[in-house]
What we know:
Blueprint: E1 2-5, H1 9-26, E2 31-34, H2 41-52, E3 62-65, E4 67-69, H3 80-89, E5 99-100, H4 109-122, E6 128-131, E7 153-156, H5 159-165, E8 178-181, H6 184-189, E9 192-197, H7 203-211, E10 229-233
The structure holds fructose -6-phosphate.
Amino acid sequence: xxxxxxxxxxxxxQIAARWVAREILVCPNLVLGLPTGSTPxxxxxxxxxxxxxxxxxxxxxxxxxxxxxxxxxxxxxxSYAFFMSEHFWSKVDLPIxxxxxxxxxxxDLAAECRRYDDAIQNAGGIGVQILGLGSNGHxxxxxxxxxxxxxxxxxxxTPATIRANTRFFSFSGAVPRQAITMGVGSIMRARKILxxxxxxxxxxxxxxxxxxxxxxxxxxxxxxxHADLTVLTNIKLLR
Length: 239
Ligand code: F6R
Protein backbone atom coordinates (compact mmCIF):
# COMPACT_ATOMS: atom_id res chain seq x y z
CA UNK A 1 0.00 0.00 0.00
CA UNK A 2 1.23 3.47 -0.87
CA UNK A 3 -0.13 6.55 0.89
CA UNK A 4 0.16 9.90 -0.88
CA UNK A 5 -0.50 12.99 1.21
CA UNK A 6 -2.11 15.97 -0.51
CA UNK A 7 -1.88 19.34 1.24
CA UNK A 8 -5.46 20.24 0.48
CA UNK A 9 -8.48 19.24 -1.55
CA UNK A 10 -7.30 21.17 -4.60
CA UNK A 11 -3.97 19.33 -4.63
CA UNK A 12 -5.77 16.05 -4.08
CA UNK A 13 -7.73 16.59 -7.30
CA GLN A 14 -4.59 17.51 -9.23
CA ILE A 15 -2.57 14.56 -7.97
CA ALA A 16 -5.45 12.13 -8.62
CA ALA A 17 -5.86 13.44 -12.17
CA ARG A 18 -2.13 13.15 -12.88
CA TRP A 19 -2.16 9.62 -11.45
CA VAL A 20 -5.04 8.63 -13.75
CA ALA A 21 -3.47 10.47 -16.71
CA ARG A 22 -0.29 8.41 -16.28
CA GLU A 23 -2.33 5.23 -16.41
CA ILE A 24 -4.16 6.38 -19.56
CA LEU A 25 -0.90 7.38 -21.25
CA VAL A 26 0.61 3.97 -20.54
CA CYS A 27 -2.57 2.12 -21.51
CA PRO A 28 -4.88 4.17 -23.79
CA ASN A 29 -7.53 1.42 -23.83
CA LEU A 30 -7.69 1.34 -20.05
CA VAL A 31 -10.84 0.09 -18.31
CA LEU A 32 -11.49 2.61 -15.55
CA GLY A 33 -13.81 2.13 -12.58
CA LEU A 34 -15.17 5.51 -11.50
CA PRO A 35 -16.82 7.04 -8.43
CA THR A 36 -19.18 9.97 -7.99
CA GLY A 37 -19.54 12.14 -4.86
CA SER A 38 -17.84 15.33 -3.74
CA THR A 39 -14.33 13.92 -3.37
CA PRO A 40 -13.55 13.15 -7.06
CA UNK A 41 -14.94 16.40 -8.49
CA UNK A 42 -11.48 18.05 -8.51
CA UNK A 43 -10.00 14.99 -10.23
CA UNK A 44 -12.60 15.22 -13.01
CA UNK A 45 -11.92 18.95 -13.40
CA UNK A 46 -8.16 18.41 -13.79
CA UNK A 47 -8.66 15.43 -16.10
CA UNK A 48 -10.79 17.72 -18.24
CA UNK A 49 -7.97 20.30 -18.27
CA UNK A 50 -5.39 17.68 -19.22
CA UNK A 51 -7.68 16.59 -22.05
CA UNK A 52 -8.21 20.19 -23.20
CA UNK A 53 -4.44 20.73 -23.22
CA UNK A 54 -4.12 17.72 -25.54
CA UNK A 55 -2.15 15.70 -23.00
CA UNK A 56 -4.59 12.82 -22.67
CA UNK A 57 -7.42 11.31 -24.65
CA UNK A 58 -10.13 8.87 -23.67
CA UNK A 59 -11.16 7.73 -27.16
CA UNK A 60 -10.01 4.18 -26.51
CA UNK A 61 -10.85 4.02 -22.80
CA UNK A 62 -13.86 2.33 -21.23
CA UNK A 63 -15.40 3.36 -17.96
CA UNK A 64 -17.69 1.65 -15.47
CA UNK A 65 -19.26 3.62 -12.65
CA UNK A 66 -19.57 2.12 -9.23
CA UNK A 67 -23.20 2.76 -8.51
CA UNK A 68 -26.53 4.43 -9.16
CA UNK A 69 -29.64 5.19 -7.10
CA UNK A 70 -32.61 2.92 -7.65
CA UNK A 71 -35.57 4.79 -9.11
CA UNK A 72 -33.73 7.79 -10.57
CA UNK A 73 -33.60 8.29 -14.32
CA UNK A 74 -30.36 9.42 -15.97
CA UNK A 75 -31.78 12.93 -16.41
CA UNK A 76 -32.61 13.33 -12.70
CA UNK A 77 -30.19 16.01 -11.39
CA UNK A 78 -29.23 13.84 -8.39
CA SER A 79 -28.65 10.66 -10.38
CA TYR A 80 -25.08 9.52 -10.71
CA ALA A 81 -25.50 9.32 -14.49
CA PHE A 82 -26.35 13.05 -14.46
CA PHE A 83 -23.32 13.76 -12.23
CA MET A 84 -21.01 11.89 -14.61
CA SER A 85 -22.42 13.63 -17.61
CA GLU A 86 -21.98 17.03 -15.97
CA HIS A 87 -18.48 16.46 -14.56
CA PHE A 88 -16.82 14.14 -17.04
CA TRP A 89 -18.62 12.46 -19.93
CA SER A 90 -19.62 15.71 -21.64
CA LYS A 91 -16.22 17.31 -21.01
CA VAL A 92 -13.83 14.79 -22.58
CA ASP A 93 -13.64 12.68 -25.75
CA LEU A 94 -14.76 9.42 -24.14
CA PRO A 95 -17.20 7.83 -26.63
CA ILE A 96 -20.52 7.73 -24.81
CA UNK A 97 -21.00 4.06 -25.72
CA UNK A 98 -17.79 3.36 -23.76
CA UNK A 99 -19.22 4.85 -20.56
CA UNK A 100 -21.31 2.42 -18.54
CA UNK A 101 -23.21 2.89 -15.30
CA UNK A 102 -25.83 0.67 -13.67
CA UNK A 103 -29.35 1.79 -14.54
CA UNK A 104 -31.47 2.33 -11.50
CA UNK A 105 -34.66 3.06 -13.41
CA UNK A 106 -35.27 -0.36 -14.98
CA UNK A 107 -38.08 -2.69 -13.91
CA ASP A 108 -35.85 -5.78 -13.76
CA LEU A 109 -33.02 -4.78 -11.45
CA ALA A 110 -31.68 -8.36 -11.17
CA ALA A 111 -31.26 -8.49 -14.96
CA GLU A 112 -29.52 -5.11 -14.86
CA CYS A 113 -27.08 -6.43 -12.24
CA ARG A 114 -26.28 -9.41 -14.47
CA ARG A 115 -25.89 -7.16 -17.52
CA TYR A 116 -23.44 -4.95 -15.63
CA ASP A 117 -21.27 -7.81 -14.40
CA ASP A 118 -21.23 -9.32 -17.91
CA ALA A 119 -20.25 -5.96 -19.42
CA ILE A 120 -17.37 -5.60 -16.95
CA GLN A 121 -16.23 -9.14 -17.63
CA ASN A 122 -16.47 -8.70 -21.42
CA ALA A 123 -14.31 -5.60 -21.13
CA GLY A 124 -11.66 -7.75 -19.42
CA GLY A 125 -12.39 -6.55 -15.88
CA ILE A 126 -11.52 -3.22 -14.29
CA GLY A 127 -7.92 -2.15 -14.88
CA VAL A 128 -7.81 0.84 -12.57
CA GLN A 129 -10.49 1.47 -9.96
CA ILE A 130 -10.90 4.89 -8.39
CA LEU A 131 -12.83 4.88 -5.12
CA GLY A 132 -14.20 7.38 -2.63
CA LEU A 133 -14.77 6.42 0.98
CA GLY A 134 -18.13 6.63 2.73
CA SER A 135 -18.17 7.92 6.32
CA ASN A 136 -19.36 4.45 7.36
CA GLY A 137 -16.67 2.68 5.33
CA HIS A 138 -18.73 1.93 2.26
CA UNK A 139 -16.98 1.58 -1.10
CA UNK A 140 -19.34 2.01 -4.01
CA UNK A 141 -22.53 1.37 -2.10
CA UNK A 142 -21.23 -1.77 -0.43
CA UNK A 143 -22.58 -0.90 2.98
CA UNK A 144 -21.52 -2.27 6.41
CA UNK A 145 -23.23 -5.62 6.80
CA UNK A 146 -22.75 -9.19 7.99
CA UNK A 147 -21.59 -10.25 4.57
CA UNK A 148 -19.99 -8.85 1.44
CA UNK A 149 -21.52 -9.20 -2.00
CA UNK A 150 -19.15 -10.17 -4.78
CA UNK A 151 -21.41 -9.26 -7.70
CA UNK A 152 -23.34 -6.17 -8.74
CA UNK A 153 -26.42 -6.06 -6.53
CA UNK A 154 -29.23 -3.96 -5.15
CA UNK A 155 -28.54 -2.63 -1.69
CA UNK A 156 -30.65 -0.98 1.01
CA UNK A 157 -28.84 2.22 1.95
CA THR A 158 -28.03 2.55 5.64
CA PRO A 159 -29.44 5.46 7.69
CA ALA A 160 -25.87 6.87 7.87
CA THR A 161 -25.58 6.96 4.06
CA ILE A 162 -29.06 8.43 3.66
CA ARG A 163 -28.11 11.11 6.22
CA ALA A 164 -24.77 11.82 4.50
CA ASN A 165 -26.37 12.10 1.06
CA THR A 166 -29.29 14.27 2.17
CA ARG A 167 -27.04 17.26 1.42
CA PHE A 168 -27.58 16.64 -2.30
CA PHE A 169 -31.38 16.43 -2.02
CA SER A 170 -34.02 18.91 -0.83
CA PHE A 171 -34.88 16.80 2.24
CA SER A 172 -33.98 13.38 3.63
CA GLY A 173 -37.28 11.84 2.43
CA ALA A 174 -36.18 12.54 -1.15
CA VAL A 175 -33.02 10.41 -0.88
CA PRO A 176 -33.59 7.04 -2.59
CA ARG A 177 -33.55 4.15 -0.11
CA GLN A 178 -31.87 1.71 -2.45
CA ALA A 179 -28.99 1.71 -4.90
CA ILE A 180 -27.46 -0.65 -7.39
CA THR A 181 -23.75 -1.12 -6.84
CA MET A 182 -20.78 -2.91 -8.25
CA GLY A 183 -19.83 -5.72 -5.88
CA VAL A 184 -16.65 -6.06 -3.89
CA GLY A 185 -15.49 -8.77 -6.33
CA SER A 186 -15.19 -6.43 -9.34
CA ILE A 187 -13.52 -3.82 -7.16
CA MET A 188 -10.98 -6.19 -5.64
CA ARG A 189 -10.20 -7.83 -9.00
CA ALA A 190 -9.08 -4.43 -10.38
CA ARG A 191 -5.39 -4.43 -11.23
CA LYS A 192 -4.84 -1.15 -9.33
CA ILE A 193 -6.96 0.81 -6.90
CA LEU A 194 -6.75 4.51 -6.06
CA UNK A 195 -8.69 5.44 -2.91
CA UNK A 196 -9.46 9.16 -2.53
CA UNK A 197 -10.23 10.41 0.96
CA UNK A 198 -10.80 14.06 1.77
CA UNK A 199 -11.73 15.94 4.95
CA UNK A 200 -11.22 15.67 8.69
CA UNK A 201 -14.61 14.00 9.16
CA UNK A 202 -13.16 10.89 7.51
CA UNK A 203 -10.09 10.61 9.79
CA UNK A 204 -11.55 7.88 11.96
CA UNK A 205 -12.93 5.78 9.10
CA UNK A 206 -9.69 6.17 7.13
CA UNK A 207 -7.74 4.88 10.10
CA UNK A 208 -10.12 1.91 10.47
CA UNK A 209 -9.91 1.27 6.72
CA UNK A 210 -6.14 1.11 6.63
CA UNK A 211 -5.17 -0.19 10.05
CA UNK A 212 -8.27 -1.74 11.66
CA UNK A 213 -9.36 -5.36 11.47
CA UNK A 214 -10.60 -6.51 8.08
CA UNK A 215 -14.33 -6.79 8.63
CA UNK A 216 -17.58 -6.70 6.66
CA UNK A 217 -18.69 -4.03 9.16
CA UNK A 218 -16.05 -1.75 7.60
CA UNK A 219 -16.27 -2.77 3.94
CA UNK A 220 -13.33 -0.53 2.94
CA UNK A 221 -11.04 -2.51 5.28
CA UNK A 222 -10.95 -5.27 2.64
CA UNK A 223 -8.77 -2.93 0.58
CA UNK A 224 -5.91 -3.83 2.95
CA UNK A 225 -5.85 -7.17 1.11
CA HIS A 226 -5.41 -5.61 -2.33
CA ALA A 227 -1.96 -6.04 -3.88
CA ASP A 228 -1.79 -2.60 -5.50
CA LEU A 229 -3.60 0.00 -3.40
CA THR A 230 -2.73 3.71 -3.45
CA VAL A 231 -4.42 5.98 -0.93
CA LEU A 232 -4.51 9.68 -1.75
CA THR A 233 -5.66 11.81 1.15
CA ASN A 234 -5.40 15.22 2.75
CA ILE A 235 -5.68 13.65 6.22
CA LYS A 236 -2.37 13.18 8.05
CA LEU A 237 -2.65 9.94 9.99
CA LEU A 238 -0.25 9.56 12.89
CA ARG A 239 0.88 6.00 13.08
C1 F6R B 1 -20.18 7.13 -5.15
C2 F6R B 1 -19.57 6.14 -4.28
C3 F6R B 1 -19.50 6.38 -2.81
C4 F6R B 1 -18.73 7.67 -2.48
C5 F6R B 1 -18.68 7.90 -0.97
C6 F6R B 1 -17.95 9.15 -0.61
O1 F6R B 1 -20.14 6.68 -6.48
O2 F6R B 1 -19.16 5.12 -4.74
O3 F6R B 1 -18.89 5.28 -2.20
O4 F6R B 1 -17.43 7.55 -2.98
O5 F6R B 1 -19.99 7.96 -0.47
O6 F6R B 1 -18.67 10.25 -1.10
P1 F6R B 1 -18.10 11.73 -0.97
O7 F6R B 1 -16.94 11.82 -1.88
O8 F6R B 1 -19.25 12.58 -1.43
O9 F6R B 1 -17.75 11.93 0.47
